[in-house]
Amino acid sequence: MEQMLSKWQPAALSLFRFITGLLLFQYGVAKIFKFPVIPYFANIPPLIYTAGMIELVLGALLMVGLLTRPVAFILSGQMAFAYFLGHMFKTGEPVWLPLLNNGTAAIAFCFSCLYLATAGGGPISLDALLRKKG
């Protein structure tokens, strides 16, 4: 089983990068362009607007696999910041459990992006295409 699945690991990495970027991109679209309409993102403060811009631009870069390692590293840091500021300490008092503070997605994105920062974008990416040309 391991040999059969391991040959697909490089393609799975590229797919994982694309899906992670797409999910972050959708948050950026919702925050910046208000689509789809989500009441929580109706009147966002400047910090959340900035987070949305980062998610929009860097999420798009992650989808196509351009500058994957630095982009993923920045997004990992943003998600860690989002978890602590926007979830864990949202009420002022720390709420430690992600199930109680709705921070599960931020944690998952943080470590997904941290993995991509170390693993790279995979063979199906603009990074790989540019490496072949250079």
UniProtKB/TrEMBL annotation:
Pfam families registered for this protein in UniProt: DoxX
Q: What is its main location?
A: membrane
Tell me how this protein sits in the membrane. Answer: Multi-pass membrane protein
Q: Where in the cell is it found?
A: Cell membrane
Which terms are listed as keywords in the entry? Cell membrane, Membrane, Transmembrane, Transmembrane helix
Q: What sections of the protein cross the membrane? A: 46-64, 71-89, 105-130
Xref: InterPro entries: DoxX, DoxX-like_oxidoreductase
Q: Write out the similarity annotation.
A: Belongs to the DoxX family.
What this protein is called in its record is DoxX family protein
**Which organism is the protein's source?**
Bradyrhizobium aeschynomenes
